[in-house]
Amino acid sequence: MRKLAIAAGLLAITLPAQANPTLEGVASGLYNLEKTHAFLTWTVKHNGISGYTVNFTDFEADLVFDAGAPENSQLAVSINPAALNTNYPNAEKKVEWENELATDARFMNAGEFPAITFNSTSVEKTSDFEGKVTGDLTFLGVTKPVTLDVSYGGVANPPWFGQRDVIGFTASTTIARSDFGQTALAGVISDEVEIEFSGEFLQAAE
């Protein structure tokens, strides 16, 4: 127990309990999504009475970050629409349902459209640590402009990344799935889809 207490104390010294939002000293340049700490979900209204949430489990993002002028930053995201995780309680049926959701032409249609992409076109800084990122979202072969509400969470320098900067963000937006040609189960599933992201970006190695 004493060894565990000492280890916990050392970890507390090494890592802050919470990174305060700051851009001071943050490196500008290329950052890649740190996949072990990145979460992306979409939520629709089901039967008009509850939210049904699904996780994407395979996605990548590259961020060219300008710490001095965040509005000059650029973001590119690619999502594998076949990589989904639902909360279906039966393990066997869960696999069947996720496969149907990923491959059926009524839903993700991943066989014909193997990637969902987002490429930023502009960034607006609305406060010290918040902004709006507008870009082109391509889903089911249709490209539409979408604006994300983005919050900057701060910077950390974990020793296991060689003291490289790790910066955190949350982002959210709402789209209409019918804008991209997806209208299946209208009335049962809402047209509005809430998309939420929370994750970290790791400074690219030199």
What's the quick description here?
This protein is 13% helix and 50% strand. With 206 residues, it is mainly β.
Compute the separation of the termini in Å: 41 Å
The helix content is 10-25%
How many domain units? 1
Query: SSE string, helix = H, strand = E?
Result: HEEEEEHEEEEE
Assembly classification: single chain
- Main structural class: mainly beta
pLDDT averaged residue by residue: 92
CATH class (first level) name: Mainly Beta
Low-confidence stretches: 1-15
Number of helices: 2
What's the story with the biggest beta sheet? 8 strands, antiparallel, barrel
| The CATH homology group name | Lipid/polyisoprenoid-binding, YceI-like
Strand content is over 45%
The counted number of beta strands is 10
**Could you please say which CATH topology applies here?**
Lipocalin
Overall shape: it is globular
CATH architecture assignment: Beta Barrel
Protein described:
This protein is mostly beta strands. The chain is built from two helices and ten strands, in the order H-E-E-E-E-E-H-E-E-E-E-E. The chain is globular and about 50 Å long. It has one domain: Lipid/polyisoprenoid-binding, YceI-like (Lipocalin).
